[in-house]
């Protein structure tokens, strides 16, 4: 009797093993490492990158103790964005070595380095900033890109904090798109109010009377809109601080035409950060180090 049970056992054993192996293979297939939607979309787009509109990120910058640190922080984000062309515009009479060297090794494949000096009479408190730099970048685009180029223009100041998701959102901009901007250091933010998929106004703590109560980092413009409005630019004359965005946007769009991004403007994907001004009083007045180090 025992020997019969044994022989049955040995006949069944290989089959049992096969079943166990099959189950194991199947569970391995099911429990692969999770892949985020973003990674998946990157994989599919990687196969067809040339189909993506180029994001032209326009960044005005000026020489100051935190400049290289800010640009490094920004460059490390931009180098991860597919098909991004960085237009960096220095407020200076020449292109500086610091910024040239930085751009050459920052890892952003496509960039353009421009410069224009802001006249001294405009460099006063209460005056809008970086007007000339943004306009020079718009002129460059109008001269070097054409009707056939698919692109999206975005004004990316060098002191903000950008989520990579923001670039996925803005890339599909058909006309002018908007989204919320967070202000670091509180609960404050500015947000386009969206009803039934349409922008109807603004949630903001500051000057809600502005026609477009958004920050420079709160909108993107399709490149073709830049061509259809060849005279649209940032204004010095008659523009108050905080009105630059409104004065520019009213030249190219209407509030009712804005495209809400970031989940109907309910997610913050960019923050208006401010780097603390460094206190240099305790630092040596002149370099004491024996080697020259660029900071
Ligand atoms: C790449 O994108 C273009 C435009 O969207 C499309 O026509 C083409 O078929 C795509 N190519 C591949 C290999 O997916
Ligand atoms: C935004 O709102 C519209 C209208 O309510 C809706 O159809 C659409 O799916 C929403 N979009 C997102 C991304 O939630």
TrEMBL record:
One of its GO terms (biological process) is carbohydrate metabolic process. Its main location: membrane. GO terms for molecular function: galactosylgalactosylxylosylprotein 3-beta-glucuronosyltransferase activity; metal ion binding. InterPro entries: Glyco_trans_43, Nucleotide-diphossugar_trans. It is a single-pass type II membrane protein. UDP-alpha-D-glucuronate binds at residues 60-62, 91, 129, 134, 157-159, 272-274. The chain crosses the membrane at residues 6-25. Glycans are attached at residue 264. The record marks 190, 282 as: Interaction with galactose moiety of substrate glycoprotein. Pfam families: Glyco_transf_43. Keywords: Glycoprotein, Golgi apparatus, Manganese, Membrane, Metal-binding, Signal-anchor, Transferase, Transmembrane, Transmembrane helix. This is Galactosylgalactosylxylosylprotein 3-beta-glucuronosyltransferase. It comes from Knipowitschia caucasica (Caucasian dwarf goby). The lineage of its organism: Eukaryota, Metazoa, Chordata, Craniata, Vertebrata.
């Amino acid at each position: 009797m025992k020997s019969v049970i044994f022989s049955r056992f040995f006949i069944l054993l290989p089959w049992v093993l096969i079943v166990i192996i099959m189950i194991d293979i199947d569970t391995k297939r099911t429990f692969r490492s999770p892949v985020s939607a973003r990674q998946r979309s990157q994989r599919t787009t990687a196969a067809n990158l040339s189909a993506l509109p180029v994001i032209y990120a326009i960044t005005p910058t000026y020489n100051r103790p935190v400049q290289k640190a800010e640009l490094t922080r920004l460059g490390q984000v931009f180098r991860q964005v597919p098909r991004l062309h960085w237009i960096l515009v220095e407020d200076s009479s020449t292109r500086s070595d610091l910024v040239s060297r930085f751009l050459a090794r920052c890892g952003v494949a496509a960039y353009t380095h421009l410069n224009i000096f802001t006249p001294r009479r405009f460099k006063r408190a209460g005056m809008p900033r970086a007007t000339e730099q943004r306009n020079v970048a718009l002129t460059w685009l109008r001269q070097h890109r054409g009707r056939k180029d698919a692109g999206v223009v975005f004004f990316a100041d060098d002191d903000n904090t950008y989520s990579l998701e923001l670039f996925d959102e803005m890339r599909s901009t058909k006309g002018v798109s908007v989204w919320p901007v967070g202000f670091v250091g509180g609960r404050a933010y500015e947000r386009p109010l969206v009803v039934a998929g349409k922008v109807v106004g603004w949630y903001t703590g500051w000057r809600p009377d502005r026609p477009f109560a958004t920050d420079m980092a709160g909108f993107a413009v399709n490149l073709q809109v830049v061509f259809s409005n060849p005279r649209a630019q940032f204004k010095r004359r008659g523009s108050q601080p905080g009105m630059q965005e409104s004065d520019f946007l009213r030249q190219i769009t209407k509030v009712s035409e804005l495209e809400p991004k970031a989940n109907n403007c309910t997610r913050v994907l960019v923050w208006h950060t401010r780097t603390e001004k460094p206190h240099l009083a305790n630092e040596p007045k002149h370099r004491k180090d024996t080697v020259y180090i660029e900071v």
